[in-house]
């Protein structure tokens, strides 16, 4: 577990409850819908805004060891609604090979998912199709160019080239900062928190760092990715409520507004409610700084 040399950094371990609760989905009676021709302009405008979704969207970052399985499934889930980037924390990208002592090893930041796919396809199409690696890489190459290492990322450095590469979810992350980082393994959480501490907070910008512990297999990555999407939705709803309550949107990104501080205070409560719904995914949280 990472040690915390900064007094303002607080780490909370959320206990796993015994019972799972379910929330009832909102339903709409079709008989109560208004015929379009009978709506007034104000109603039509309000409904159009509701269909657009929240007026503000938090920016997310997902992290696992190799930026291939768990972080990329979460990247996929979040990219459908939110600005998102993703990273790995390992020294190299390691994928299963023909034996446990013969992994396939690639470099971060300079190897594309497409190259990985073609390399393993040519080595043993049957093996890597049966163990799901080719399917995983095919998903990845349709999401972003290649795996990135978290320790090589420079927060605040523009990421315009990722839009040009067609990375999904990159729209909105051009400034190179995020509001929330979600790791998928405790050792990755430790690496992220340590790295942020070592950087010395040059931007003086708060960032919430969560860990959602997900086993590194394709099935649990899918389950975990959906749960991370649920957490993102809850956080984003709260952020929008606070921004509307304090009506000071311009100061939100500076990290010094009352809305931001009120949101920060509500995060443990939000995570606790989320944990009750997902008791099999132990979670950690801390507030850190860029």
UniProtKB/TrEMBL annotation:
UniProt keyword Nucleotide-binding present: no
Broad class of enzyme this protein falls into: hydrolase
Residue ranges with Basic and acidic residues bias: 37-50
Coiled coil segments of this chain: none
One BP annotation, GO: mRNA 3'-end processing
InterPro entries: RNA_pol_II_suA (IPR006811)
MF term (GO), any: RNA polymerase II CTD heptapeptide repeat phosphatase activity
Subunit relationships: Component of the cleavage and polyadenylation factor (CPF) complex.
Protein name per the record: RNA polymerase II subunit A C-terminal domain phosphatase SSU72
Source organism of this protein record: Talaromyces amestolkiae
